[in-house]
Amino acid sequence: MNRGRRRSIVTRLIAGLTLAWVAAGSLAADLTELCVQVRPAFVFIAGGSGVIVRPDGLMLTNDHVIGPKRSFTVRIGDGRSFRARLLGRDPHGDLAALELELPEGETVPWLPLGDSEALRVGDEVVAVGNPFALGVLDQSPTFTVGIVSALHHTQGTYTECIVTDAELNPGNSGGPLVTMAGEVVGINGQISTRFGLRSNTGLGFAISSRQVRLWLPRLEVAGGDEVRHARLAGLEWEPADRTAAESVLVKDVADGSPAAAAGFRPGDQIVSLDGAAVVNRQRLEGLLGIYPDGQRVSVAVVRDRIEMSLEVMLTAPQRAKLGLSLERARGSDLSARVETVDAGSAAESAGIRPGDTIVAWGGRRLEFSSRDERRAFDRSLRTSINVGDILLVTVDRGGEGGVPGEAELRLVAK
Amino acid sequence: MAAVFRGRRFCPTSILVAVFLGSVHGAEPPAARELADHVLAATVGIAAITAEGATYSGSGSVITPVGHILTTTSVVPSDATDIRVIFPGFVSHPARLVASDNDLAISLVQIAAETLPAADSLPVLALARELPAVGSLAYTASDVDGVLVSNGRASFSRGVVSGIYAVVPRGESLYRGAVIETTAAVNPGSDGGPLVDASGRLCGVVSLGGSPLRWQGVAIPTAVLLDRFAALRHATLPLDFDPPAGLAADKATTVAAERAAALWRVADGLAPYLVGIEVVRRFPPENLPMRSWAEQRAAIENWDTLSAAEQKQRFAAFADLMRAFEVNQLLRRPAADSTGLVVAADGLILTSLFNLGDDTAFVAKATGRPRVFDPLSPLPKLLADPPGGLERQPNPVTKLTVILPDGRRRPATVLARHDPLGIALMQLELEPGETEQLAWFNLATAVSSPLLGDAVAIVGRGSGEGAAVTMNTGIVSAPARMRGYQFQTDALLNYGNSGGPVVDAVGNFLGIAGAPIEPDTVVGRLFSRAELMRWTRAPNSGVGMVARADRIRAAFETMKGGRSFDRIPGPYLGVQADTARAFGEDVFVGGVAGGSPAERAGLKKGDRLLEFNGVELATWRGLTERIAASRAGDTITLLVQRRSRGPRLVIAGRDIESVADLERLKKSLQPGESFTGTLSTDDTREVEILLEESR
């Protein structure tokens, strides 16, 4: 008798005899059950995926899946078709919340949001999605299994994201990353690719459910509009990549900024933000990258060896007017000479005077090799400085007797 | 019994089988979580620069408490002058090269004694003296995308040991010998990093120069290094060989290990029925000229006269070119055997249609042959068409040879193809006098219905001497695709295992692995980054299609008789879905097949199908189900809506919108036949269509 067949019969017999052995939590049976349990809450939307997170039809996907449209026809995993309306979006963080338009009294299957902070590298996770649009016609999504590869990772615009080796491909975007308990701990959105070939290479990136929880309440009430990301305005910290650091040192605080209002002082060591340990600058910037405009966070700092907690309001960047104008470049002279300084402006408060030549900006010496470069600098003064930014500016006042008369000034944008 | 059995397969049976045969692992393996912490504490990133300014980076493993780190020569070449090691926890230190062996592609570096932390606190990985078991769990840790700098810890992945086989020097790697292949993630940046066995010991050093047949991660075994690498052999280093103690187990990892071990026992049992298939095509497969920087530099004339900046630029251009070659090589069939399964004693062999399919060749018009890519040419020139231009030609199979398990090579011919299944049946030609019955796999043992979430393995036959069995594990991602002819798995599918059998942990045959790539492979053209963004599927995408065993079994007798299937048998209409509009409660035609009943009836892209024989149509699946429930020869009535801008001409029941429509109408009518026409303002009409037998 063929070997394969004999083995199959033998193992069936064994299985029959050992039914009584079966533990309720047999993992393989769990995986099938998990897939079946999770499938109805999956959403086929546009060229990608989504997931329903509340029985009244609140659903999530990536912003890049929905593009500029605000209204969609979607199909959910149990086969039903609905209209979905955009509630709010976050293009920078790549999240979008929509609402399924349900007939009176109808509910939909949903999955709870899990705790991405409880994840550890090595934990098994399952990705549900629609790679290569394979599931569209037969209405069944794709399930892939892997583990958590890394946490609190920054990839492109995703910060504090989850890295997984569960296979993700184009079409998985917007779909859920679930634990074996069926909770959504991530929204899959990016993959690492080789030389542009858009196919799984074992590195997939998911927005954490922690970030989702921070954004959902704002997205829900955004009326279809964008909710902006926030920053910690008015704080300047150690720029250097400190190795073996355990905190971030505050270098400077801008008067009148939210950081000042919260009570930060130069010399403070930032040790945690909303309970997450701030081990270095990258971690702090990554953590700050997950909050929406208007979010209050608590920051633990150590000051004179005493730990204290500060409450600070994170705000969306607001473009600042510096109140200075530069002379046009003349011939081969591209240097940035100040023409006018407005009264009461940030530039005036910093001590910048008409006639000064700006020779260093934000710690970098200015050397323009073309008019275009000089123009780009002028543009950056108008567009890329936000309220609360602190900049070190070096100006040349032209000393006497050939001695350079440089002065270092502190500019606080307001 | 069968239904209850279905949901309870692995855990009890695999535990029992393990008890009968003797447990593979002995003690339970450490939990993945625990292993992650242990391994990541000893995984480092490495950056190296040579005197000419060539830069290299990758990963490494700490193997002694005094700071010895094992990596590959592609991360720290033998002429590196400046080496920096990035430790977990955002600490980095300079290191010196202790020993390097180009033939083994291995380097050993060490950080300075004064940078060591307090005694005995530098986390290390113990070395495995022997090879790991195929089918056991395996882990990789990698400094991908500079994650150690930004995140403080390397990235971690789990897979299985999918095969152990011999490789020959290729591309940058000069290593010749046994390698351990894994399904754990291996990426640029993983080079030089650890492959860890189920117990937590370092069992291999990851080397990206893997096999083009399978494009998976391979590692140079520590078992080989302990024997051949002088620096390790003389045992003067304080190496550890004991598996890490004190790491707790957990159910998830234990079950995963048992599942993989059970799958391997099944896979290994299929060895007598696996054959290699050697295919000769009109234009042979290409090996894009990937080479080491040393080779490239030696080939550049006037290298010494170039300025430092120019030399750096040449190196950067070379690195970019090699990356482009690597990805473009992924789109090419390798010059190696693919896999087949013997399914009858007289030499019937099943394999994937992909293995025997025609490729596309881009042939230079000037020479009539595919061009040769010179690595000394700049990349933009290689991406552009050659002088005279390119011509696209089919690249069909010209000769088929089967390599039997005992090494005999015999010709074979294709008996039948089945397009919807993606399989082909071949007949082996034994020599006169060779009458023995071959060992064969009985398709009658096939069990239908792969279950969503089931653990499965794609079994492959390696290439070259020994032709060891390989296996890639995964789950059933979707049990029915292509109208139930295929199922989908996330087990990695590549050129090496296409055509191989797919099994579950208790020995059921679930199908034959299909095509690893879409669209077809190519010869003769390099694709730019922009073009690659539009490519569909690459090998090892984690989306693999498998021809379902129940359908194979149903078609087998017919195929044995030499009959091929171009389309899904049964009644045929000839409409294709509009997938962009497939989520609502309407059915839109995305396309109409040439020569089909739908085309003759005048259906067009954009038509909305409202009713089928008077019953409302809401989904595409509904339409295909109704067609399948009909018979060839039935006349069906579709209510079709086509939005028109104004009144339209309808003659003999069909819309006439162009001269082509008129021509088609003429062809469908018989001389003497009378017909009527109307100028219609109604955009909905009934269309009668005679379903044909699918050919």
Short note summarizing the structure:
The complex is a heterodimer of chains A (414) and B (695). By secondary structure, chain A is α+β, with helices and mostly antiparallel strands.
Key features of this structure:
heterodimer, A: 414 residues, alpha+beta, 6-stranded antiparallel beta barrel, 6-stranded antiparallel barrel, disordered N terminus, B: 695 residues, 16 helices, 20% helix
Radius of gyration of chain B: 29 Å
Assembly category: heterodimer
Percent strand of chain A: 25-35%
User: Mean pLDDT score of chain B, rounded?
Assistant: 88
Number of beta-strand segments of chain B: 38
Please list the strands of the largest sheet of chain B in the order they lie side by side: 1-2-3-6-5-4
Helical residues, percent of chain B: 10-25%
Task: Explain this structure.
The complex is a heterodimer of chains A (414) and B (695). Chain A has helices spanning 3-17, 27-38, 63-66, 209-220, 258-262, 281-288, 346-350, 371-383; strands spanning 42-45, 48-52, 58-61, 71-76, 81-90, 95-101, 124-129, 142-155, 158-164, 176-179, 184-191, 204-208, 235-237, 248-253, 269-273, 276-277, 295-303, 306-314, 324-326, 336-341, 357-361, 364-365, 390-396, 406-412. In chain A, the strands form four sheets. A six-stranded antiparallel β-barrel of chain A has the order 1-2-3-6-5-4. The relative contact order of chain A is 0.10. Chain A has 414 residues and is α+β, with helices and mostly antiparallel strands. The longest helix of chain A has 15 residues, at 3-17. Chain A has eight helices and 24 strands. Chain B is α+β, with helices and mostly antiparallel strands. Chain B has a six-stranded antiparallel barrel. In chain B, helix 2 (10-21) crosses helix 7. Chain B is globular, with a radius of gyration of 29 Å. Residues 1-25 of chain B have low confidence and may be disordered.
